Amino acid sequence: MAISRFLKMKSCITRSKFQAKEAAKEEDGVLATNYNVSMEDLPLPILVDVFSRLPIKTILQIKCVCKTWHSLCSDPYFAKIHLARAPFSIMILEKFCKRIYTNSLVPLFTLNQGDKERLSLLSSCNGLICLHEFSYKQDIISVCNPILGDHLVLPQLKRKNVATRIRGFGYNHCTNQYKVIQILSYKDQAAISSSKPQVEVHTIGTNTWRNIGDLPYVLNQPYYGAFLNSALHWYAHSHDKRTAFMCSFDLGDEQFRQFPGPPTREYEKCRPINSISVGVSGGFLYLCDGFLEPNLDIWIMKKYGVKESWTKEFVIVNSVVSKLQRLYGSLQILNYRENMNKEATEGTELQMLFGSEALLAYNVRSKSIRRPKVFDVQTNYQAIPYIPSLVSIKKLQ
User: Fold this and answer.
1) What are 289's strand-pairing partners?
2) Which domain of life does the protein's organism represent (predicted)?
3) Residue 136's pLDDT band (boundaries 50, 70, 90)?
4) Residue 291: beta bridge partners?
């Protein structure tokens, strides 16, 4: 039953029960104002509003109270409402024991301990985590919800002589579909009758990969694709290497397009690939420019798709930060929030992860840098921005 119809019906029933009890109380000479309303007497729309504001762990507990609450909190519509209100968090993968944590350090999900090969977090979207496990014999991509314990292994894309793979994971709100893309560069491009990398797309809930043709650009950063607003984003350059720019892949029409970037083009022809990082944090697209050492300029796109909204939010002048950017070629901002610079207090810190091991905290007010404890987790870990959710993979299949 659709949740809207369910809510209306349940609301009418609840209201009728309430009115009947009120009438009975008044007949007995008891004032209605003395009537104590229990949780089961509340209209369901109010329960939805209240429950959707609760922490995820509390929701998992109230699902066990009664069948009505279990049905309510398991509905996809409720999952969307809760997701829109859920706070940003940090997801941590400890590679040694293959455990997934949030920054509360409570293990949410433990992967098959029999798998001893390399494992990595690709990205997160609406509370779903895309994982990549690589071994000599196989190349596995899976999607999981660590809160619910759902885990889906995607069909393997069996291609020979692949030199490099760039991947992305995201959601198209118009079609309510989750998609994973792989961009394959071959050791011998002539063998596949194309001189350009090939783009393969998988829609969650299907059993196949679709080849949608050539990649029109050369993608530099990031290797996993930065997801925001039904699109994946990269920093790229033309095949002749004469121009560099940002680009996006629309998960709806499955087309690559150039995307408006910040005004950093005066150095494009001589810019090292590792001097640029693109990502998403706090619901905003960012670009980190470390070309002019020891500066690291962090640009934030305040209004999605509007070129003029790019703002140089932070200028970090520190040789260690600049060298780490060049060394790892990958910088993830884990905890940005809107107006973070303007509303900064003495303890406000921007957390930046370089590669998979170097975490630095930049004090927004004092401009100082420190290397914090890595969430008490051993080295050889990964961390990505994350929003806990009730989105069920099982209902997407």
Assistant:
1) 276, 297
2) Eukaryota
3) low
4) none
